[in-house]
């Protein structure tokens, strides 16, 4: 039964990582910009959970909604205040701006709240375990899987069936042409940032749920996961990001089990060794596009 | 309908358009011809709001287009089918067409527009659920034109619609342009295939190094020495395309 417990754990990690990667690639697809301030959106969600939990009697579920909405608003604002101004300039300028926004948000948390870790109150359900058919696992794992899959299904519906979702995918293919069909550039980009923020907000609930604490640099871990996952999955497609996230999560879980105790500290090093191998074998990423990029030249 | 006066466009230090003036009247089929680098695509891009004009004016139905974004210009009634089609390769034919109708809001109208599209482009009905990137060049060109028509443009700008297509497909595209025209669509056409363009256009502008070298009816241009030499193979240069 330990095998099943491990599998549930691996799926939980994989689905969360898939979600993390998707939040990054939504922006990358359209602006071709790696948003290094993405991790800070997760941090914002975490601090909102902490602030609401420590200062009010608002139930956790409502605090969670506040955290998600807060991350969406901050994401939208970073685009409005910072990225929109440099969008027409070079891609390098845009990239540097994401570092600036990241640093700004991190330091704001450092100054306004504290450089030290703050404990975040979690609901009972996060620490309970459940046993079905002799398989024992934490409710947190089950919740992570259910919510991540629900988010992925919801986003798939949005991207396939709504005109906004189709416009977002079109903008990732050819931004200029999308505008030439009458789709406002700002609408597409703002929507992408709001969606990315929503994902970061949901991720923050489960990311914080693992340690029950939040620090100013908590966003670094998920950012790195998102970045590596999109690179192994293929940065050009949303499906690639999700696949990359799952693969990353599964491999990471497997290494944790397979490595002997003494080598467990080097888990990340082994992880990156495998990532390098994947990239050597499939430099374009795991998911390749099914058509020739340009037929006429 | 469309009036361009003394248009000047620069790409960094390079002046792409020195002085372009042209006009398109309601219901007309006007063509821009000229060698590569003459400024045909740049002219279209400036009208569509993709490149900025340094100088000059562009007026559409009495409204200036200078400084307007591509999305606003589309909503004013000007659609572009750019060079190399620019369909969305990862989207299905259906999704490409749906986006073409983005600026329209009436759902029942979308249905009837689709039916009309299928009459005009039967192949798109067959390929409806296929990914755009898997279509052949000719099919992609039809999709690109169909997509632009979904917006019900008053002026349709076609940039080299026959480029890279097999001769039979070129025929098909030219027949289509004639059909669109007879349905009352005003068209501004950029073409390298001058011989065919002379057959269908009402008026033509011959562009050269960012200037209008000559303007007139097909008959007037046919008698122009440079056109005879370079495009129609009657002079010393030979060959009908350059």
Q: Count structural domains of chain A.
A: 1
Percentage beta strand of chain B: 15-25%
Assembly form of the protein: heterodimer
Compressed to H and E, one letter per element, the order of chain B equals: EEEHEEHEHHHHEHEHEEHH
What fraction, in percent, of the residue positions of chain A are helical?
over 70%
Poorly predicted residue ranges of chain A: none
Quickly count the helices of chain B.
Answer: 10
Q: Biggest interface between protein chains, with counts per chain?
A: A-B, 28 and 36 residues
Write down the CATH topology of chain B.
Rossmann fold
User: CATH H level of chain B: which superfamily?
Assistant: P-loop containing nucleotide triphosphate hydrolases
What is the overall silhouette of chain B?
Answer: globular
> Which architecture of chain B does the CATH hierarchy give at level 2?
3-Layer(aba) Sandwich
Describe the strand arrangement of the main beta sheet of chain A, using strand numbers.
1-4
Total domains of chain B, how many? 1
Give a short overview.
The complex is a heterodimer of chains A (297) and B (242). Chain A is mainly α.
Mind sketching the topology for me?
The complex is a heterodimer of chains A (297) and B (242).
Chain A: H1 2-31, H2 38-55, H3 60-86, H4 91-112, E1 118-119, E2 129-132, E3 135-138, H5 139-161, H6 163-173, H7 175-180, H8 185-211, E4 213-214, H9 220-233, H10 238-258, H11 267-281
Antiparallel strand pairs in A: 1-4, 2-3
Chain B: E1 2-11, E2 14-24, E3 29-33, H1 40-48, E4 55-60, E5 63-64, H2 70-76, E6 78-81, H3 93-100, H4 107-120, H5 122-126, H6 137-149, E7 155-159, H7 167-182, E8 186-190, H8 194-200, E9 203-208, E10 211-216, H9 218-222, H10 225-230
Parallel strand pairs in B: 3-8, 3-9, 6-7, 7-8
Antiparallel strand pairs in B: 1-2, 1-4, 4-5, 9-10
């Amino acid at each position: 039964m330990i095998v099943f417990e491990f599998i549930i754990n691996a799926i939980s990690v994989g689905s969360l990582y898939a979600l993390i990667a998707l939040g990054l690639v939504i922006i990358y697809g359209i602006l071709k910009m790696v948003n290094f301030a993405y991790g800070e959106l997760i941090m914002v969600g975490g601090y909102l959970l902490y602030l609401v939990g420590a200062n009010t009697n608002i139930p956790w579920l409502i605090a969670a909604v506040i955290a998600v909405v807060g991350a969406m608003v901050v994401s939208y604002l970073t685009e409005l205040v910072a990225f929109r101004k440099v969008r027409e300039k070079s891609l390098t300028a845009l990239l540097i701006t994401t570092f600036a926004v990241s640093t700004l948000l991190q330091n704001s948390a450092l100054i306004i709240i504290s450089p030290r870790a703050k404990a975040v109150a979690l609901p009972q359900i996060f620490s309970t375990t459940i046993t079905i058919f002799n398989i024992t696992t934490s409710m947190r794992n089950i919740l992570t899987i259910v919510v991540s899959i629900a988010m992925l299904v919801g986003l798939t519906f949005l991207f396939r069936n709504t005109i906004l979702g189709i416009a977002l995918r079109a903008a990732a293919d050819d931004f200029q042409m999308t505008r030439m069909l009458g789709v406002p550039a700002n609408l597409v980009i703002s929507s992408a940032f709001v969606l990315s923020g929503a994902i970061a907000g949901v991720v923050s609930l489960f990311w914080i749920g693992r340690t029950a604490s939040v620090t100013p640099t908590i966003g670094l871990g998920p950012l790195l996961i998102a970045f590596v996952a999109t690179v192994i999955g293929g940065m050009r497609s949303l499906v690639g990001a999700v696949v990359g996230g799952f693969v990353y999560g599964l491999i990471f879980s497997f290494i944790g089990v397979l490595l002997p105790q003494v080598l467990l500290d080097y888990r990340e090093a082994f992880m990156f060794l495998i990532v390098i191998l994947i990239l050597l074998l499939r430099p374009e990423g795991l998911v390749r596009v099914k058509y020739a990029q340009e037929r006429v030249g | 309908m469309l009036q361009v006066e003394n248009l000047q466009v620069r790409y960094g230090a390079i002046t792409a358009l020195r002085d372009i003036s042209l006009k398109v009247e309601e219901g007309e089929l006007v063509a821009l011809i000229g060698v590569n680098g003459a400024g045909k695509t740049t002219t279209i891009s400036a009208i569509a709001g993709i490149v900025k004009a340094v100088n000059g004016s562009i007026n559409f139905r009495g409204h200036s287009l200078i400084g307007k974004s591509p999305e606003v210009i589309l909503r004013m009634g000007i659609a572009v089918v750019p060079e190399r089609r620019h369909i969305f390769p990862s989207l299905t034919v259906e999704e490409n067409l749906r986006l073409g109708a983005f600026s329209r809001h009436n759902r029942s109208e979308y249905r009837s527009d689709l039916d009309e599209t299928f009459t005009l482009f039967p192949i798109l009905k067959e390929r409806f659920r296929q990914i755009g990137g898997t279509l052949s060049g000719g099919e992609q060109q039809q999709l690109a034109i169909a997509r632009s028509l979904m917006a019900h443009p008053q002026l349709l700008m076609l940039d080299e619609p026959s480029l890279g297509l097999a001769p039979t497909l070129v025929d098909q595209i030219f027949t289509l342009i004639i059909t669109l025209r007879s349905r009352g669509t005003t068209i501004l056409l950029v073409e390298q295939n001058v011989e065919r363009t002379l057959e269908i256009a009402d008026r033509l502008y011959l562009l050269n190094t960012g200037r209008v070298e000559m303007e007139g009816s097909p008959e007037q241009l046919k008698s122009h020495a440079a056109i005879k030499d370079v495009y129609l193979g009657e002079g010393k240069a030979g060959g009908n395309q350059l």
